[in-house]
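Lab notebook page, bench 4
Experiment: in silico fold of construct C2
Operator: M.H.
Input chain length: 112 residues
Purpose: comparison with the prior construct
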Amino acid sequence: MAFPYCVSESRLRVLAYFSRIWLINLFELASRELMKKFIVFFNSQSAEIVRTLEGVTAIKRNYPNGEEVHLPISLAGIHSVTGDQIEIYVASDRELCLDEVENAANKFLEPI
């Protein structure tokens, strides 16, 4: 079967290259919308930021003795200086005070 017009091999390569770039950019944009960041406090270590899909409700961690634990991800509401409410997701294996969460949020999360 013949194509209605002739396309050179070099043009096909260029089209394939730009199609690949377009798909990669589309995937990155979609993944940003489907991902959420949260702060993990685990085993008295310093807090860390983890990215996961939006629907995930717990994260698995292992203690040094091999014990496996699933930390639930919860939403911590923190009021900013301007009075706005900033929502921060947190997973922890211990009771947290508000100062710990605020300090980690100030350290890791970019301002809104």
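Observations: The first helix runs from residue 9 to 34. The first strand starts at residue 35 and ends at 41.
Next step: discuss at group meeting.
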